[in-house]
Amino acid sequence: xxxIEVEKxxxxxxxxxxxxxxxxxxxxxxxxxxxxSSPGAGKxxxxxxxxxxxxxxxxxxxxxxxxxxxADARRxxxxxxxxxxxxxxxxxxxxxxxVEHALQGWSLADLDILFIENVGNLICPAAYDLGExxxxxxxxxxxxxxxxxxxxxxxxxxxxxxxxxxxxxxYVPFQAGRAIANARSVNPRLETIExxxxxxHGLADWERxxxxxHPRLQFAEPLLV
Length: 225
Hints:
Helices cover 36% and strands 18% of the residues. By secondary structure, it is an alpha/beta fold. The mean pLDDT is 93.
């Protein structure tokens, strides 16, 4: 059996589990969002800002994936929402099976929003369906504006691209307009948001994007920046 056949079998098994998850999320009205980026693009920081501003009655939980350590889970748990760490032990992506296992002990009937913070990687996570409602790709301005062309799979499958760390644009050669154009050449339907978790620029746009996708998602102190 060659490598391609093995990969097809692995992905087929993953897709079957992902479809079961998708049906369960749909049945219980859970909005599941899969955040994907290179390491250091700001997934955890964006989730921190999100959890800090969400109204306390919002039924929200987070699964966060990493190769080692539970550092991200500990950072996010301080906001009072259920958080679980998925440690892959070297794997470069989450799978539907890992998500299914991590959800054990949680009742989907008690959730409205599930954030999945994937392992930092733009390649492997793109191929693995987790049953999510949407993939969100983060691209920081400290990377290259050609990234959407270099890693087209994730940009073609994402519903939203978030340009992060835009407060640093004056100090890096990154061109936001070029990055957006490159991403939309891969995916013309891709929505985009430019934000900075340090200056708060664009966080209101992020909140509005989230709130538009689930009626129960509310923010205690909406940002107007």
